[in-house]
């Protein structure tokens, strides 16, 4: 099958020569797994630097860089005006000798470009939003900073796609509230690289006292404030926060400074350490160094951190929402607490840190759950069946 994956944002990691992260990591793994299964896969992303190769073969699939807009990195708000041009470029490209049998848009901007490109064809469109503006606005409130046109354009996009891929049950519910029929929403959780994330291997250096690890960007809605406040109830333990800018830039980072000030006011400054950005290929060592991984974002569609921690055999204490609620089985692979309930969060962390046998059992169950239900091979297989279904719907039935 010929598959086109459209992500209008450029992948900055390709420019830097490092591995893909976040949404781009998801797309790269899906593309590679589909290629292994024998599909002809092409990934479309915007050119964002002068002199970039127009095409590049990676892990069995082809990356095509679309020359729209300036050859520089653009925030989403500045990318939106180039979506129609991106779609026209794709339409022209697919009018030649190679055209996809199915197009899969990623994030709302990529989905708009994909839908624009195929609007005069019978090529079906599958869409993964990765996050939804209405959900982010609800959970982040005044900290929501996406472009004003995002939510109305997402509502328009769901009317243009054949099927939407949700990454959690909460996202399934949100998409149906936005107007999609339940039969037009498929739940396909993300995968975990179990070759990289597993219990055996090196662990990052640590102190003798118990370690709680939080992995998230240092920006709105990732819940580090809740964890710092909860530390007053935890007792003698360290909270390590990984994420944000590189360590040498933390001193000038506004959010990092606010977190340190909060730790001072809460009387736990000697228990909180910010280590800055950690390369994704080194994250397994940090997970293995922790007694518990805490996942406390205000919004999480996929629950990637909870899955990676579980794959490393570390129990998770997380907010019962989004992908975290799907990944963590309460009192089996970790503990779920009500979002925003700082007291319950602190008490739960304290009790779990004191329960060595419980953490051991949760860790073993977590590894089994990831290996059974959250591999990239499983994710790619579910998408493959989904593509076959939508192509079969669109393909005309030949007369007998």
TrEMBL record:
Q: Please name the InterPro entries in this protein's record.
A: Glyco_trans_1, Glyco_trans_4-like_N, Glycosyltransferase_grp1
In this chain the Glycosyltransferase subfamily 4-like N-terminal domain maps to: 22-191
Please list the residue ranges annotated as the Glycosyl transferase family domain. 206-357
Signal sequence region: none
Q: Cite the entry's keywords alphabetically.
A: Glycosyltransferase, Transferase
Q: Which domain of life is it from?
A: Bacteria
KW Transferase (keyword) present: yes
- One Pfam family of this protein, by short name? Glyco_trans_4_4
Q: What is this protein called?
A: Glycosyltransferase family 1 protein
What organism is the protein native to?
Micromonospora thermarum
Organism classification: Bacteria, Bacillati, Actinomycetota, Actinomycetes, Micromonosporales
